[in-house]
Fold this protein.
Amino acid sequence: MKTILNFKLFMIALMGITYWVAPECSVIPQAYAAKESKEDRKRKSLNNKIQNLERRIENYNNQIELIDLKIELHEKCRCCSTGNCRGQGSVRGCRHWAVDKHNGRNVKVCHQLPHNEQREAGIDQAISVLNKKKEMIQTVIARCQDKIAEAEAELNN
């Protein structure tokens, strides 16, 4: 048993010596052989940054399309002649709704419209909020485009 243990220790020591004497025989140094230069890593990083920003801009444009659709749907809710109107009985108001598809998903808006002079105030407020959201997204898109231009300029240098 002692000789087997000594043989194992001898082989472990021998492998260690092989590693230091002949590194091409071992696996570990080959992992470090394909090390990239700093310029290659920087170029790759900038390309990834540009791709991520372009994807982000695409998502923001998709959100703007959804906001535009919701604004159209809110406008459809203004009158009772759209066919999507249900009376609310003793309140003398009505509930309007409109539905459409965006990217395969249903988008629905609905409003409880009272029977008084401020009948469409809720619709106006919803449209106002959506327009503000749209403006905010457009400023973020502009910032992303500026960052893309900076990264491309740095990439070309």
Remarks:
- The longest helix spans residues 38-76.
